């Protein structure tokens, strides 16, 4: 067999092997690969609306829109939901992640003043826990001694203990990681989380991205829920 014939034979064999491999791959796609019929998107018309939640049950809720229409909301597993608002200090449980703005001396691990406001939040790539410079803070206050290593920071970490006006958190990037925090007498607790466990009837919702099916069920993919203000405890 000539060299040219051998080369043609090898090229032909390689082409046949590639064709067989492609055919097998099509018949047996890799595990986790998208296949027709999987992850079907809900069918219907696009929906965007606001209103008040009348009932809340797990991932299904009932909405009364601003024009009086009653609809059932079902949240997709991959839905992008923001739950924001004010809650009572009782929500400061061990393991929850909080953040606050403060003048912080990283060398001495001191926070300049008692914290007046903190937020329970869901850490993300864009909003991580740790000590982050607060570039939006003003530092021209004459009462601030800039030579004492005070820096405006956003501090975030997971709650370890909470009692009275004392809070301790584990802050990524600090060594040791535990940081003690003094809270102001009238401190406020806000939330900015992605889960629905705080949502209740009476909260307001803005559904920004959803599909409404023919049976008046709204399949939610993106929404913001604003919690109703907590009722103040009655004085004894």
Please explain how this structure is put together.
With 236 residues, this protein is mostly beta strands. Among the domains are: 45-82 and 196-226, Copper binding periplasmic protein CusF (OB fold (Dihydrolipoamide Acetyltransferase, E2P)), CATH 2.40.50.320; 87-136 and 148-193, no CATH class. 11% of the residues lie in helices and 47% in strands. The chain is built from one helix and twelve strands; from the N terminus they run H-E-E-E-E-E-E-E-E-E-E-E-E. The protein has one helix at residues 3-27, and strands spanning 45-57, 60-65, 70-87, 97-105, 110-111, 115-121, 130-133, 151-163, 166-170, 178-193, 204-212, 217-226. Strands 1, 2, 3, 4, 5, 6, 7, 8, 9, 10, 11 and 12 form a twelve-stranded mixed sheet that branches. The N and C termini lie far apart (105 Å).
Question: How do the strands and helices of this protein lay out in sequence?
Answer:
Elements: H1 3-27, E1 45-57, E2 60-65, E3 70-87, E4 97-105, E5 110-111, E6 115-121, E7 130-133, E8 151-163, E9 166-170, E10 178-193, E11 204-212, E12 217-226
Q: Biggest sheet, open or closed, and with what strands and sense?
A: 12 strands, mixed
Q: What is the residue-mean pLDDT, rounded to a whole number?
A: 82
What integer value in Å does the Rg equal? 28 Å
Total helix count? 1
Strand content: over 45%
The helix-strand sequence is: HEEEEEEEEEEEE
Name the helicity range. 10-25%
The total beta strand count reads: 12
Shape annotation? elongated
Q: Characterize the quaternary organization of these chains.
A: single chain
* Low-pLDDT residue spans: 20-39
Distance between the termini: 105 Å
Coarse structural class: mainly beta
